[in-house]
Each structure stands twice: as structure tokens, then as C-alpha cells.
Amino acid sequence: MNALHPNxxxxxxxxxxxxxxxxxxxxxxxxxxxxxxxRATSEISQALPLVLPALAEGLHADTLAASIDGxxxxxxxxxxxxQRYGSPSPHREMLLDPHRDAAILPLxxxxxxxxxxxxxxxxxxxxxxxAWGGTLEPAVHEQSGRLDHREGDHDRPIERWxxxxxxxxxxxxxxxxxxxxxxxxxxxxxxxxxxDRLGAGLRVEAMAPDGLVEAFSIASASQFTLxxxxxxxxxxxxxxxxxAIFEAFGDACRARQRQRRRAFA
Length: 265
Description:
By secondary structure, the chain is α/β, with parallel strands linked by helices. 29% of the residues lie in helices and 23% in strands. It has eight helices and 13 strands. It is globular and about 55 Å long. 40% of the residues are buried.
């Protein structure tokens, strides 16, 4: 087979894995990712999105690290199992996805160590915290002094769930502050769980007014690694800040793609 022409290679998009949930579809186990992540990765990050199955026994971390240029960890109605961070039992309202836990959590240290750019949203944000040894508070709204970070009235049109809900303070000099061009902005909020103890080696990027960590990066990683508790994927049409997050992620994935291409040349 002839090698690809250099001009053709220049037009290839970076390959981005998007985590999925294990669900049931007409009585069959299935793997699902919400369209907002797929669309933002394709249209804003200008990458090729590939849905990663929630299949622990089928995902080989080293093979994946050698094959992709980025990974998006999606939000989900489900939560990381408390057993994964040493809590005795799930909260009464908690929906779990043990297949996703088993598939994603073991992958993350290998992918980050291999230099794969990472963008983690909501549940994905919580997965990274747990993978780095942190813990989660299962019901932030029940804690004294905390805001109610849940999505609110479910009778509203789904688009309204993602309206801005509260301010966040962006740490001066942080990646997010540079992307926003400010140290304060507003974000949406659709989560029950939140960070209790921040994982070792994670660097705070943003805080809510009640002191809850809303974003972090991985201090030891030289590549783009950003985890946010809110949902930028649903605001790429009307928020320059949301678009900037996915654009910066796309730029990092293209840098990774060039690096991989040189390694295999």
C-alpha cells in the first residue's frame, strides 16, 4: 500500500475517544454517549470523535494511548461508585454505572502519562479526581453552607437546564483564566456530587462561591488536561468561553497528532 501523501496527512483530523455509558436498549446492553460531546468535539475541536465502549476487559490502555490524540470524559446521569473512593454505601438518589467505572478509571493514569490530552466534564471531572486518589461528596446540596448545584426544575425545556447558574472564580494565571480572559465568569450547574478531597497532584483552576472546586488540571502533565464540573459542550453556540475550551483542546489534540505521526514515520 502506498504511503499517504504529505498534503493528505495535513488534512487528517486528530482522533478523540469519547467515553460512553453502559445502558440498556430494547433489552440489550448498549454503549451510549450524548450528542453534545460528539458535536462539540467534531465541530469545535475539529477532531474525529470515536465513542469508547464501557468495556473494561476490552480496553488495553497502552494500545489506546498509541492510537488516539485525545480523550473526552463525558458527563452522565450516573455517578462514580462510592466504593471506588472508600465510601461505605451509595446515596439513596445515586444512579451507578459500574461498567463505566471499571472501564475508565484504570485507563486514566496510563493515558495521561503517555501525553494524551484530556478534557473531562461533570462525571468525567469526578472520575479524574477519584483516579488521582480524591474523594467525592455524594449530595452537595445537603451540606451546610453549600449552594444547590443541581439542575433545578425538570419541567423546563432541556436547553434551559444548561443556562448559567452561578459565578466561578478562575485562578489567576490558570489555563481557564487565560481562555476566559478574566478571573470570574458564570457557568451552568447540573450535579449532585462534588469534590470532597481533591486528588493528589491536581491543581485547582476554578472555585464556586461556596468554596467547591469547579475545575482542575493535572499539575505534572505537560499536555492539555482540564476537568470542569459544568457543561461547556452544551454552550458552544452562545458562549465564547465554552468554545475556547473545546478549541484549546482541539489544538492540543493536533499537537499530539503531529507527535504521533513523527513517531511512526
